[in-house]
Design goal:
It is built from twelve helices and 20 strands. The protein has 522 residues and is of the alpha/beta class. It has one domain: Alkaline Phosphatase, subunit A, CATH 3.40.720. Helix 5 packs parallel to helix 6. The longest helix is centred in the N-terminal third of the chain and has 29 residues. It starts with a helix and ends in a 6-residue tail after the last helix. Its EC number is 3.1.6.1.
Length: 522
C-alpha cells in the first residue's frame, strides 16, 4: 500500500471511528432516562374594576399603596400594553377563559340569575390544563352564568315585586328554588375541579356556593340594605334570593382565606395546580374592612384596592410557605377599567384610576380595557422586565398551553396568540399585530401598531360628569369616526381622522375582516 493510500485509509478510519462514537453516544443518551421537569403551577389573580393608574409601580402619581403588586412586578414582567377583551365583567372573563374574542358570541353581561355563556364542551383554559394533569380550582367571582332553571320549582308560579334602582321589577323569590339540588353549567362544567365563591358580589343569590351547590339555602329576598351603606358610590345590588344576615363585608376576607387554605393543601400534592382567583374587589359595593380604612389617600376605593393588594400578599405568602413559589407562574390583571366613580376621585382625592388614559369602565377608549398585567415565574422570566408588546388576555390560553406542553385540539384556530417567547426571552419581535376593542355592539375599535381606529364619533358609554366635561381637554368630535396615534397621543386627545383618510380606510377594512372571521368552532 502506498503512503498516499495508507494515509487516505487512516483518514477514513478516523472519520468512521468518530461517526461510530457519535452514534454510540447518541444511543446512550437516548437510553439514559431523562429527569422529568415538573410542570409549573399557575395562579391567575383577576381583580374586578381595577384601573391601570391604581398601581403605584406604573403610576407615580397614584395615591394608593400597592406594595405586594409592586413587588410582584419587580420580580417579574410588567406588560404595559395589555388589554381585557371588553370594558365590562362577563365578556372579559369569558374571553380570558376561552381564548376567544367575546364579541364573536355576545356583548352583554350575565344579568341576575342568568344562563351560562359557555357552549357545551367548549374548549377552555381550565379544561386544557385539567386534561394535562392539573388540579384546577376557581375561587371568588364567577359572573359567567349557571342553569338556575334546573333547580327552580315549577309548582311555584308567582313572582314577587322588587325594587331595582328606581324601577320595580318581578323576580322569583328564594322559595322558588330547590337549594339542595346541584346547579348545572357553572365552573365545574368548563373544566374546574372545584369552586368556592358567592357568584357575584352584587348579584343574587346571596349565599356561598361550593362546587355546584349552595352551602346555605336562601330564605328571603334581599332588596337593599337598610343600614351600613357602601363607603363610596352605591351598593349596586340586584334584588334576589339571600340568606339571612348576609354580610357583604365578609366576602373578600372569606375568599382570601379559602385561597390561602387551597394553596396550603397543595403542599403534598403530586399534581400541579391552576388557581383562578377572581377577586370581588375593588368592584362596587366599595366596602374595605375596618382595618384597611384610611390606608390610602384615595378614599374608600383606594383602601379597597389596598385590601386587594394585601389579599394577593397573603396568598403569595402561603405559596412561599409550602416552597412552591419557585415553580409557580403568577399572573395579575384586571377585567376592565375602573367604575365611573373614578371621575369623582379625580376631584376629591387627585387620584386618576385611568391614568394616563381616556375613559373608564364600559368605554371603548383605552381607560375601559387597558389594564394592569404582571407575570412572574422565577428562573424563567427576568425580574424587573418590561414589555410594550400589544397583548390581550385572550392570549393567556395559547401562551399557558405552550408553556405547560398542554395539547390543543387538532386544527383548532384561536384568536389567542402564543406569547411564551416574549415572557421567557423578553423579545421585541411582535407577536400580535392587531387587536379589536369592544364593549357594546354599536362601538368597535381596532388597534394596529401605533394607530387606533374607532368606528364611532364617540368612544364613551359611561356618562361623564358635567364638571369634568366642562373642564376636560378633549375637543368636541366633528368626524363620524375617530383615529388616534397612541405613540404620540396615549391620552387620545386629538382625533386625526380627517387628516389621515387613507389610514381610516385601511383600519376600517381591517376591522371588517376581523369581524367576518370565525376562528374557533366547537
Amino acid at each position: 500500500m502506498t503512503g498516499k493510500n495508507k494515509a487516505k485509509t487512516m483518514k477514513i478510519s478516523a472519520y468512521f471511528y468518530i461517526l461510530m462514537l457519535v452514534c454510540l453516544t447518541a444511543c446512550q443518551q437516548q437510553t439514559k432516562p431523562t429527569a422529568q421537569v415538573p410542570k409549573p403551577n399557575i395562579i391567575i389573580f383577576y381583580a374586578d374594576d381595577m384601573g391601570y393608574g391604581d398601581l403605584a409601580i406604573q403610576n407615580p402619581q397614584s395615591k394608593i399603596p400597592t406594595p405586594n403588586l409592586d413587588q410582584l412586578a419587580r420580580e417579574g414582567l410588567l406588560m404595559t400594553d395589555a388589554h381585557s377583551s371588553s370594558g365590562v365583567c362577563t365578556p372579559s372573563r369569558y374571553a380570558l377563559l376561552s381564548g376567544r374574542y367575546h364579541w364573536r358570541d355576545f356583548n352583554d353581561i350575565v344579568h341576575a340569575m342568568g344562563e351560562s355563556v359557555f357552549k357545551e364542551n367548549q374548549v377552555t383554559l381550565p379544561r386544557i390544563l385539567n386534561t394535562n394533569g392539573y388540579h384546577t380550582a376557581a375561587i371568588g367571582k364567577w359572573h359567567l352564568g349557571w342553569n338556575w332553571e334546573a333547580i327552580r320549582k315549577k309548582e311555584v308560579t308567582q313572582k314577587v315585586k322588587a325594587k331595582h334602582g328606581k324601577k320595580e321589577i318581578e323576580i322569583w323569590p328564594a322559595q322558588a328554588y330547590d337549594w339542595d339540588k346541584s346547579i348545572p353549567n357553572g365552573p365545574l362544567s368548563i373544566g374546574f375541579d372545584t369552586y368556592f365563591g358567592d357568584g357575584t358580589i352584587n348579584f343574587p343569590p346571596y349565599t356561598w356556593i361550593e362546587n355546584d351547590k349552595a352551602t346555605e339555602a336562601p330564605t328571603l329576598t334581599l332588596q337593599h340594605p337598610k343600614e351600613d351603606f357602601a363607603l363610596e358610590g352605591n351598593w349596586e345590588l340586584r334584588p334576589g334570593p339571600a340568606v339571612k344576615d348576609w354580610d357583604f363585608y365578609k366576602i373578600l376576607p372569606t375568599v382570601t382565606r379559602k385561597a390561602v387554605t387551597f394553596i396550603k393543601n397543595q403542599e403534598q400534592a403530586k399534581e400541579p395546580f391552576f388557581l383562578y382567583m377572581a377577586f370581588p374587589s375593588p368592584h362596587a359595593p366599595i366596602i374595605p374592612n375596618e382595618e384597611f380604612r384610611g390606608k390610602s389617600k384615595a378614599g374608600p376605593y383606594g383602601d379597597f384596592v389596598f385590601q386587594t393588594d394585601d389579599a394577593v400578599g397573603q396568598i403569595l405568602d402561603a405559596l412561599k410557605a409550602i416552597n412552591a413559589d419557585e415553580n409557580t407562574i403568577v399572573i395579575f390583571t384586571s377585567d376592565n377599567g375602573s367604575e365611573h366613580y373614578a371621575y369623582n376621585r379625580i376631584k376629591n382625592y387627585d387620584h386618576d384610576s385611568s391614568h394616563p388614559f381616556r375613559g373608564v369602565k364600559r368605554d371603548v377608549y383605552e381607560g375601559g380595557h387597558h389594564v394592569p398585567f404582571i407575570v412572574k415565574w422565577p428562573n424563567h422570566i427576568k425580574p424587573g422586565a418590561k414589555s410594550n408588546q400589544l397583548f390581550s388576555q385572550i392570549d393567556l390560553l395559547n401562551t399557558l398551553a405552550s408553556i405547560t406542553n398542554s395539547e390543543l385540539p387538532k386544527g383548532l384556530q384561536h384568536d389567542s396568540f402564543n406569547f411564551s417567547n416574549v415572557w421567557l426571552t423578553n423579545t421585541d419581535d411582535p407577536v400580535r399585530e392587531t387587536i379589536v376593542h369592544n364593549t357594546w355592539a354599536s362601538k368597535y375599535a381596532i388597534r394596529k401598531g401605533d394607530w387606533l381606529y374607532i368606528n364611532n364619533k364617540d368612544g364613551y358609554h359611561t356618562r361623564i360628569p358635567k364638571w369634568f366635561e366642562e373642564g376636560q381637554r378633549f375637543k368636541t368630535a366633528k368626524d363620524t369616526v375617530q383615529l388616534f396615534n397612541l405613540k404620540d397621543d396615549i391620552g387620545q386627545n386629538t382625533n386625526l381622522a380627517s387628516q389621515f383618510p387613507e389610514k381610516v380606510k385601511e383600519l376600517a377594512a381591517a376591522l371588517g375582516n376581523e369581524q367576518e372571521k370565525e376562528m374557533f368552532e366547537n
